[in-house]
Amino acid sequence: MISDSLLYAALGTAFTFAMTTLGACAVFFFKKEPNPLFTKLALGFAAGIMIAASVWSLLIPAIEGAEAAGVLPALPSAGGFILGVCFLILLDNLLPHLHLGSTHPEGPRVHLKRETLLFLAMTIHNIPEGMAVGVACAAAAAAGGGDALPAAAALALGMGIQNIPEGAAVTLPLHSAGNTRRKAFLMGALSGLVEPIAAIAVVLAASNFALVLPWLLSFAAGAMLYVVVEELIPEARLGEHSNAGTLFVMAGFVLMMLLDTSLG
């Protein structure tokens, strides 16, 4: 089972990483920092996809997995969710980073360049996405494929789709900060490498401890929703055209819901 899990996770996160890289290619075609409206729409769209994925691809399977194992569903679903939120809060406090549109770095006070802090923020953001794809692949392998495998594929597809505009939205400011196009591209693309690493880590945990799978599913959901509420939705609502950002949150939610209910 572990070999299947690792294969599924490697394929899924290779796709999401490729989509991040594709989005980062925008730096070779645009000379300036992205229009604030584009950033707002891209982040809102990503938020909608991540919200829907947290519910359909992670929390519902966590509840169903706990019920199948004869465990009270509330314990792993709520417990894992809370642990996922705590994990992201811990990362926020341990790693210095700078969110898009912000002038005040978060985390420990260090003397790092703005582009390095932006890179660290992107990396933190990508960790729960990689975890989500990895744990969905572990669930698919544990179920022997079947209906769980298309569900994992739908999740990877949704994460990959939102990584394209998101990759552009975070890479272009790196070039505007004074980096060469090549360096900005490499930093944007490399931030996506954390997704395969996070996916493999949760696959190994799930494979060695089968009973922890519902906990890991809800853990990934909590981590993703923390990113959405803490970072993506506020940035999608800042300034003018806040209605447009809200509509793109809804559009991302509907797209991921359709992918999950159709493929999964």
UniProtKB/TrEMBL annotation:
Coiled-coil stretches noted in the UniProt entry, renumbered to this chain: none
Keyword annotations from UniProtKB, A to Z: Cell membrane, Membrane, Transmembrane, Transmembrane helix, Zinc
Cellular localization per UniProt: Cell membrane
Pfam families: Zip (PF02535)
Main localisation: membrane
GO cellular component, one term: plasma membrane
Domain of life: Bacteria
Membrane topology according to the record: Multi-pass membrane protein
GO terms for MF: zinc ion transmembrane transporter activity
Family that this chain belongs to: Belongs to the ZIP transporter (TC 2.A.5) family.
Protein name: ZIP family metal transporter
